[in-house]
């Protein structure tokens, strides 16, 4: 079905050796996901059960919300809670009752665990169960962990979506489920393409509102839009849904291959596929060509951060003319990123997990033109003369599907252009 402009490599990287690193992850915790999830799920509230540090992280990452009643907050665990002197469970339930009495717009409430709530072993699952029973059917209360002990920043979304799956009603209907929180405008573009392909029954997890009637069952097939949803993938399979493996929809090639996998599943014929995709494909190619001029022949090094690294390396090497030196990812789940690995030519070091000192040594030795890394590493590396791209921006910015393909290339070329401009200015 797919007519890829570039041939896949004779052997991809699916079976390439993976360097396993076993140090601590130097990334944000899973609470960060609340920043994009609370915008997406319009009747949800995220109640972090944590410390003042957790509250500060959320406030500084999200900015202060002025225009609307916020859809997230922190139930602060005080020293008496941490010392086991107060019944934190009871207090939490009282807090939730108060919140729900005041906010009738809340239909889904997530109790989000943190490092402190884990340390004192607060049973959020039991609290969610009791509160759900008390506030059903108007509000569904769920829980997941966003703690830095258990999760890296994109795993917060995974844990959140996975927590929703067991509570979804059963359906026997044949349907496609898109899985992953995309900005509304990007989600609408994807739904429009699928509808033009004639795929009618399409649902999205997470739905924008709880009353969207989302259900799941053995005739549900699902396509992931984010490569960090391993837990959600497993939860959906436990409910009998079937995954449609595909490269992730980054860039023209990734988007076409992703759509082609879905189209094959639903028996869309070649002529229709080409008719629907040819114009946006051509637009995407043009946009990438322009935005990627500064990337041709340049090298890139990925520190493990967002789990987007493998699909992005595929995009940068195959569509933007870059050379990948090292592709680090917190976890490499071949059931998810296998199709991207198939398209990735052998050569780069694949590394799973983090040992930051060793990775820094390798990065310095290679002196790549561009280093994709977390905020904490970016400043020191910039000071050493390396151009960097913050991995977290790739999660906050609309980068999926055809219409964003040029912007995605632009995100990587900007630091290189800026560096050239600075050098010209000082030269
Ligand atoms: Fe820090 Fe842990 Fe709270 Fe995240 S959950 S802000 S890592 S204390």
Automatic annotation (TrEMBL):
Under Enzyme Commission nomenclature, its number is 1.3.7.7
Residue ranges of domain Nitrogenase/oxidoreductase component in the record? 29-386
Cofactor field: [4Fe-4S] cluster
| UniProt cross-references to InterPro entries, sorted A to Z | LIPOR_BchN/ChlN (IPR050293), Nase/OxRdtase_comp1 (IPR000510), Protochl_reductN (IPR005970)
Cofactor comment in the record? Binds 1 [4Fe-4S] cluster per heterodimer. The cluster is bound at the heterodimer interface by residues from both subunits.
Q: What is catalyzed by this enzyme? A: chlorophyllide a + oxidized 2[4Fe-4S]-[ferredoxin] + 2 ADP + 2 phosphate = protochlorophyllide a + reduced 2[4Fe-4S]-[ferredoxin] + 2 ATP + 2 H2O
Give the main EC class. oxidoreductase
Q: Which domain of life is it from?
A: Bacteria
Q: Which UniProt keywords apply?
A: 4Fe-4S, ATP-binding, Bacteriochlorophyll biosynthesis, Chlorophyll biosynthesis, Coiled coil, Iron, Iron-sulfur, Metal-binding, Nucleotide-binding, Oxidoreductase, Photosynthesis
Which positions in this protein are listed as binding [4Fe-4S] cluster?
29, 54, 115
Which molecular function terms from Gene Ontology are attached?
oxidoreductase activity
**Coiled coil (UniProt feature):** 82-109
Question: One short Pfam family name for this protein?
Answer: Oxidored_nitro
In which pathway is this protein known to take part?
A: Porphyrin-containing compound metabolism; bacteriochlorophyll biosynthesis (light-independent)
**What NCBIfam families does this protein's entry cite?**
DPOR_bchN, PRK02842.1
Function statement: Component of the dark-operative protochlorophyllide reductase (DPOR) that uses Mg-ATP and reduced ferredoxin to reduce ring D of protochlorophyllide (Pchlide) to form chlorophyllide a (Chlide). This reaction is light-independent. The NB-protein (BchN-BchB) is the catalytic component of the complex.
The family annotation for this protein states: Belongs to the BchN/ChlN family.
| Name of the featured protein | Light-independent protochlorophyllide reductase subunit N
Q: What is the lineage of its organism?
A: Bacteria, Pseudomonadati, Pseudomonadota, Alphaproteobacteria, Rhodobacterales
Which gene is annotated as encoding this protein in its UniProt record? bchN
């Amino acid at each position: 079905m797919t007519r890829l402009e570039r041939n896949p490599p004779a052997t991809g990287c699916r079976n390439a050796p993976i360097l396993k690193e076993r140090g601590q992850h130097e990334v944000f915790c899973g609470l960060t996901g609340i920043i994009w999830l609370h915008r997406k799920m319009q009747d949800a509230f995220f109640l972090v059960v944590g410390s003042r540090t957790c509250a500060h992280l959320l406030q500084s990452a999200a900015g202060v919300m002025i225009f609307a009643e916020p859809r997230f907050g922190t139930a602060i665990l005080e020293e008496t809670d941490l010392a086991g002197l107060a019944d934190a469970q009871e207090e939490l339930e009282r807090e939730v009752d108060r919140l729900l009495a005041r906010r009738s717009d809340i239909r889904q409430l997530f109790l989000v665990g943190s490092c402190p709530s884990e340390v004192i072993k607060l049973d959020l699952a039991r609290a969610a169960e009791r509160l759900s029973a008390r506030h059903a059917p108007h509000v569904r209360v769920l829980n997941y962990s966003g703690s830095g002990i258990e999760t890296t920043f994109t795993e917060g979304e995974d844990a959140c979506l996975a927590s929703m799956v067991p509570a979804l009603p059963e359906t026997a209907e044949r349907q496609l489920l898109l899985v992953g929180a995309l900005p509304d405008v990007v989600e609408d573009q994807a739904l429009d393409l699928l509808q033009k392909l004639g795929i009618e029954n399409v649902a999205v997890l997470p739905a924008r509102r709880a009353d969207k009637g989302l259900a799941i069952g053995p005739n549900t097939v699902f396509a992931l839009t984010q490569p960090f949803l391993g837990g959600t993938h497993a939860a959906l399979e436990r409910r009998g849904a079937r995954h449609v493996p595909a490269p992730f929809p980054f860039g023209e090639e990734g988007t076409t291959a992703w759509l082609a996998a879905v189209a094959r599943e639903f028996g869309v014929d070649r002529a229709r596929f080409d008719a629907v995709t040819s114009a946006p494909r051509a637009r995407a190619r043009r946009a990438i060509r322009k935005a990627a001029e500064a990337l041709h022949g340049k090298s890139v090094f990925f520190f493990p951060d967002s789990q987007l690294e493998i699909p992005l390396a595929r995009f940068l090497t195959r569509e933007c003319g870059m050379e990948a030196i090292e592709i680090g990812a917190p976890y490499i789940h071949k059931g998810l990123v296998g199709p991207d690995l198939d398209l990735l030519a052998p050569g780069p070091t694949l590394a799973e997990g983090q040992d930051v000192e060793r990775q820094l040594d390798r990065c310095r030795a290679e002196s790549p033109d561009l280093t994709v890394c977390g905020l904490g590493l970016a400043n020191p590396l910039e000071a050493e003369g390396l151009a960097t791209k913050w991995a977290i921006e790739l999660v906050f910015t609309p980068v999926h599907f055809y219409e964003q393909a040029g912007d995605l290339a632009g995100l990587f070329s900007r630091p290189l252009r800026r560096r050239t401009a600075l050098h010209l200015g000082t030269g």
